[in-house]
Amino acid sequence: MSAGSQTQALLRLMAWMSPAFPIGGFAYSGGLERAVHDRVVIDARGLRSWLATLLRHGSFWNDAVLFCEAWRRHEDQQALQEVAELGLALAGSAERHFETLSLGKAFVAGAQAWPSEVFARLPRDLPFPVAVGAVAGAHGVAVSDALAAYLQAGLSQAVSAAIRLGACGQTEGVAILAGIEQDVLDTVTQAAQSTLDDLGTATVQAEICSLRHETQHSRLFRS
Cα separations (Å) of 142 from 1, 71, 148, 179, 195? Predict the structure, then answer.
């Protein structure tokens, strides 16, 4: 890939992962709101541990595996259908299912500003990581760069949610993002070599928080 093509790919990646991209990601917390409500996460230290655990063993890890599979199989319509169905089936709660499905659909709608044949191959219903992975692959964005940006955007959104929930301050939130960089890099490296056999989580408390958020009376976020 030429220097010009690399720069173009970077620009597209930055646009897709920008907070201004019209997917409404600011409306979701992935169960974090309930974790703060139940005092499972009470401060910056707890938030850092929560996010690192999700990266290694939770929803971020599954997202990374699905992302890489979609990136590799972006030219295979049947494979994309299968990985999309699997990704939706892995959602641990109704709200997590709604979150990833809504973000996936919104991402595809926005990303069509950059024409590509991949949109004709994508299923109508697909989870967010499958949507981003397939589109990034079709546009020639390196999988490591694309996945790193995807994970960083997800972590940034979680930190932003935590700030609004009062679990940490802005300076602490930035420090968490700086401190978790190596975890992101390690996850990217492992996920790039993964297969669908590597899917799986061990974050029971996070799943419980997501389930309990569905019945929370007063809340700021949709998940």
Answer: 10, 9, 10, 24, 17
- 67-75 mean pLDDT: 98
Going from the C-alpha of 175 to that of each of 41, 84, 183, the distances in angstroms are 17, 34, 14
21-46 per-position pLDDT tens digit:
999 989 999 999 999 999 999 999 99
The reported pLDDT for the residue numbered 112 is: 97
Q: State how far the Cα of 143 lies from the Cα of 55, in Å rounded to an integer.
A: 17
The vertex-19 CA angle with 88 and 108, nearest 5°, equals 40
Which residue's structure tokens are 């297969």? 195
Q: Give the residue from 96, 152, 155, 150 showing the smallest Cα distance to 127.
A: 96
Q: What percent of the chain has pLDDT over 90?
A: 92
| 210 contacts 38 by C-beta, under 8 angstroms | no
Is residue 138 within 8 A of residue 117, CB to CB? The reply is yes
Residue 173 one-letter amino acid:
G
Boundaries of every domain in the chain: 8-213
Secondary structure of residue 214 in the 3-state scheme: coil
How many helices (H) does the chain have, and how many strands (E)?
A: 12, 0
Annotation: CATH topology of 8-213: Urease accessory protein UreF (1.10.4190)
How crowded is the C-beta side of 17, counted as CA atoms within 13 Å? 24
Please tell me whether residue 180 adopts helix, strand or coil conformation: coil
Amino acid 92: pLDDT = 87
